[in-house]
Each structure stands twice: as structure tokens, then as C-alpha cells.
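Task 17 of the worksheet. Students: predict the tertiary structure of the chain below and write it out as C-alpha cells. Keep your answer in the requested format; marks are given for formatting as well as content.
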Amino acid sequence: MKGAAVGVLAGIALDAVLLVGGSMRGEAKDYGQAGQTFPVIEPDLLATIEARLSQAEAGGELARMNAAFARRVEAKVRRPDPVAGITPAREARSWQFDPTVTVEQDIRDPQGRLIAAAGQKINPLDFVTIRQDLVFVDGDDAEQMAWATTRYSDVKAKIILVGGSPIEAMTSRKRRFYFDQEGRLTGKFGIQHTPAVVSSAGKLMQVSELVIKPGRAT
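Model answer:
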């Protein structure tokens, strides 16, 4: 796989289901009428839903619901839920993270050629070079934000918030910020405190939680 990027090909197998219907014949017999019969009434569900939507639209309820939904979505985008359990670092610590993964099943290219066999170990750093550090900070912590933006340019690092509003930060500081949605990155690297920095170290990743002394954000 020299000089080739490793891609994961996922396939979904669909099983075909045959429904075989048979017919049964028999003699019709009149057993008499057991009681009064009534026609089966099955209201059209789609028509009912459309009628209720029309009523909601006419009364302005639909517009209010859409507006409320839009406000909730905007609020989540502007200020995502903070990553749970992340606190300011009180003690510096550092460790290495091995990004090597074990392939669970054969990976093949569109022509069916084997790229990686099941059970094979692959280190992404064998194929890509990490040129930017990942810097994790709490966007609501002024000292952490000042520390990160002073030390790291957009070229040198990606600043990833674990709390706060990335949109407000981008507007006020005129630079790009990211957000660790659902703590996926901090969870993967084992980060529990901020600020934290992840950088490449050969075939490993160096992870460091750093302590900012009061008044010395730089």
C-alpha cells in the first residue's frame, strides 16, 4: 500500500424476501347471520394528518412551531452543549497516544483489490503527516482563550473548544475555531483537563495537559 491512502469501504448487503401467496379453495356454506353487520370504516391517515396541518397553518400554530424549532437549532449551533467532565488543569501531565487501529474486515478498492486484510494493524501516521497541533480550550475561560490565541496561529494549530460559542469567538477574534462535539476527540485522546495540546511525535501523538498560571496566559 506504499504511496496509497487507506480508505474504508463499507458495504450494506440487502437480503431479498419472497412473499409467496397461495390460494385455498373450498365450498361456500351459508351458516346464517349471527348478528347485525356494519361496514368497516378506516379513516385515511394521510388525509387526517394533512387536515390537521392545514388547521395548524391557518391558525398560525405551524409557523410558531417552525420558528421555535429554528431558534433551538440556532442556539445549539451558536453554543453547543459543553463537553461533560472537562475541568481546568491543576497539574501538568503528558502521555503518548498510539493511533494504530486493527482492521476488522478485509478492505478492498472498487476493483476488488485487497488494500488491508482483516486483523492487520494500520497506523494513519504512516500515510499522513500531521502539520498542525490540536489545542483544546474552554471557550468560556478568558485566560485559556488568550493563552491559545496568543501562542498558536491558524497555520500552527487548530483551536478546538470544549465549551463556549465557536461562532462568537470567530466573530470577535476574526479567526477559525472548532468544537469537540459530544467530546469525541477529548474522549479518544483521554483528555480530562484544559488547556491540552495534541501534537505528532513520529508514529505516535503527544498529549499534554498544561497549567496556566493566573495572569500569565501567554
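Marker's comment: The two ends are 44 Å apart (CA to CA). Residues 87-99+129-209 form one domain.
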